[in-house]
Specification:
K(+) binds at residues 59, 119, 155. The chain has helices spanning 7-19, 24-41, 58-72, 90-97, 132-144, 189-193, 207-211, 220-223, 253-264, 276-283, 297-303, 322-332, 342-346, 355-368, 376-384, 396-403, 410-421, 456-469, 474-492, 500-515, and strands at 49-54, 76-81, 103-105, 116-120, 148-151, 173-177, 195-199, 215-217, 241-245, 269-274, 290-293, 311-314, 337-340, 390-392, 424-427, 433-435, 441-443. The chain has 521 residues and is α/β, with parallel strands linked by helices. The protein has 2 domains: 7-213, YjeF N-terminal domain (Rossmann fold, 3-Layer(aba) Sandwich), CATH 3.40.50.10260; 220-515, 3-Layer(aba) Sandwich (UDP-N-acetylmuramoyl-L-alanine:D-glutamate ligase). Helix 9 (253-264) packs across helix 18 and helix 19 (474-492) packs across helix 20. Bound molecules: ligand NPW and potassium ion (K).
């Protein structure tokens, strides 16, 4: 159930179903019934007056069906059409014909003395920005403050990207069919949808074998079989050794947050490394986490020669500049899995895009001329030249510094970045996207708004590192980490600070452990 289908793929699912013998009219009848069922839940009793706003395509067709079914059970339903009834085609024209009462023009006046609005203006067939009369209507609906139930997607939301084309309806609930679309989860679409219900309208699961979707909504089912649970007789080193590289003395908090994330995610051993002043400070703050004074690229290379140290995080609090560049390149030469976050990413920013970076890069060049300038291509070549996986965890700003302005939806941008860099990308945000170089992608949807708090990204990077230390494959580790992070924030509730996240993880992990299929314990 976690597959996400673009509007084009949904259309294909529809065609395959019809080719299998199910008439399109039946699909529309079931779609309209699903809409009517949810609409009934949003009313305040039989006297509720409902405005159904229908558009010129099959989204409007679903609206006509819902209107008829709601009227049949006693609701006071009015139907308004954008455009001409004579221009309706196919199944939508047939469903309009079955509506027994007058069809009025859809204008802002339609909203007067209504209680609920059903938005059946545009769905999967939105092909351009909404303008003119249609835009005026959408704006009037939003200004009315009436509760809105959207059919398939709120009109104006692009089902593929979640972007607003022109203007868009703000719905309280949305009913979609067979599978969600990326636009239900990507911002701002996700906000405009309200609560999303997915209805079964008789499209068989077998169409997925043809469509082979490569985009999913994050859920444990996707990665739980790759999760490594503690086993009887296991040794701590069986669960990996995560190494967290600290920044200088006044920036050690980020490494500590990452380290606790890694340890709580189940890494057997976690060591924080840094220069002697930084580690002296850290040592007064941690107990089950080890601390070693290891500083500079050469020392890091030597430290990582011990292959039991199998996952490394660098970036949180690292500082931007040539030292971090050298550290990252040394770490990438090791056999460990690597997580690059924050300053480890910005240190490779394209100098052309970033004045501060340009200056730092010039200095670096002066001292390290043989290694070439610190730029994204240097980083990507180092990633592609190694065996063990790399996960990068940029927010939008860091992403832009490394990859520039890429075209397409957030999913497409993350996919391109993963392919270009050879790393698994966690493109963070309310709608975090995880993408692998082979094209697989996941949209995360469980992060509460209060997760946007200082240091929460450091904990996330630490959780990824902890899972990589346990030898979870990188794409699955990244997806699991993002999900656990969101779940932990929800479990803690409002008032959360980053320090709280690692300590809520056990509760989340215990629930997963209790629910996982038998025989895997
Ligand atoms: N697939 C399924 O499984 C099932 C799908 N079902 C339903 O069908 C819906 C998809 O129907 P659809 O393809 O007819 O597209 P829809 O969204 O009604 O819009 C197309 C019309 O709008 C017009 N138009 C577009 N943009 C415009 C704009 N900005 N401003 C003005 N006009 C604009 C466009 O005009 P054109 O581009 O052709 O000039 C065309 O006339 C889907 O969302 C779901 O609700 C269910 O019934 C059952 C199973
Ligand atoms: K709609």
């Amino acid at each position: 159930m976690n597959e996400l289908l673009t509007p084009a793929e949904t259309g294909e699912a529809d065609r395959l179903t019809e080719a299998g013998g199910t008439p399109g009219l039946d699909l529309m009848a079931r779609a309209g019934k699903a809409v009517a069922d949810v609409a009934a839940l949003m009313t305040r009793g039989p006297d509720t007056r409902i405005a159904v706003l229908c558009g010129p395509g099959n989204n409007g067709g679903d609206g006509f069906v819902a209107a008829r079914l709601l009227r049949n059970v006693g609701f006071d339903v009015r139907v308004f059409l954008l455009g001409d009834k004579s221009a309706l085609k196919g199944d939508a024209a047939e469903m309009a014909r079955r509506w027994p009462l007058p069809i009025r023009a859809a204008t802002p006046d339609a909203l007067q003395s209504m209680y609920l609005v059903i938005d059946a203006l545009f769905g999967a067939g939105l092909s351009r920005p909404i303008e003119g009369d249609a835009a005026e209507l959408v704006e009037a609906v939003n200004a009315s403050g009436l509760p809105v139930l959207a059919v398939d997607v709120p009109s104006g939301v692009d089902g593929a990207s979640g972007e607003v084309r022109g203007v868009a309806i703000k719905a309280r609930r949305t009913v979609t069919f067979f599978r969600k679309k990326p636009g239900h989860l990507l911002m701002p679409g996700r906000d405009l949808c309200g609560e999303v219900t997915v209805a079964d309208i008789g499209i068989p699961e077998s169409v997925l074998e043809t469509l082979k979707p490569r985009l999913h909504e994050n859920a444990p089912g996707i990665w739980i079989s790759d999760f490594n649970w503690p086993t009887d007789g296991g040794h701590k080193y069986d669960r990996g050794h995560a190494v967290i590289v600290s920044g200088p003395a006044l920036q050690t908090g980020a490494a500590r947050l990452g380290a606790r994330g890694a340890l709580r995610a189940g890494a057997g051993v976690v060591t924080i490394v840094g220069n002697s002043t930084a580690t002296a400070i850290i040592a007064t703050q941690v107990t089950s986490i080890m601390v070693r004074s290891v500083s500079g690229a050469k020392a890091l290379s030597e430290f990582l020669r011990d292959q039991r140290r199998n996952a490394v995080l660098i970036g949180p609090g690292a500082s931007v500049g040539p030292d971090t560049v050298a550290d990252v390149l040394a770490i990438l030469k090791s056999s460990a899995s690597v997580v690059l976050d924050a300053d480890a990413l910005t240190s490779f920013a394209d100098p052309e895009d970033d004045g501060d970076r340009a200056e730092a890069s010039m200095g670096f060049l002066a001292r390290n001329g043989d290694r070439g300038p610190a730029q994204p291509s240097t980083l990507f070549a180092a990633i592609k030249g190694r065996q063990a996986p790399v996960v990068m965890t940029p927010h939008e700003g860091e992403f832009k510094r490394l990859f520039g302005e890429l075209p397409g939806s957030k999913v497409e941008r993350a996919r391109t970045a993963a392919e270009q860099s050879g790393a698994v990308i966690i493109l963070k945000g309310t709608d975090t996207v995880i993408a692998a170089p082979d094209g697989r992608a996941i949209i995360n949807s469980n992060a509460p708004s209060w997760l946007a708090t200082a240091g929460s990204g450091d904990v996330l990077a630490g959780i990824v590192t902890g899972l990589l230390a346990q030898r979870m494959p990188a794409f699955e580790a990244a997806s699991a980490a993002v999900w656990l992070h969101g779940e932990a924030a929800s479990a803690f509730g409002i008032g959360l600070i980053a320090e709280d996240l690692p300590d809520v993880l056990p509760k989340v992990l215990q629930k997963l452990y209790a629910e996982k299929p038998r025989g895997r314990r």
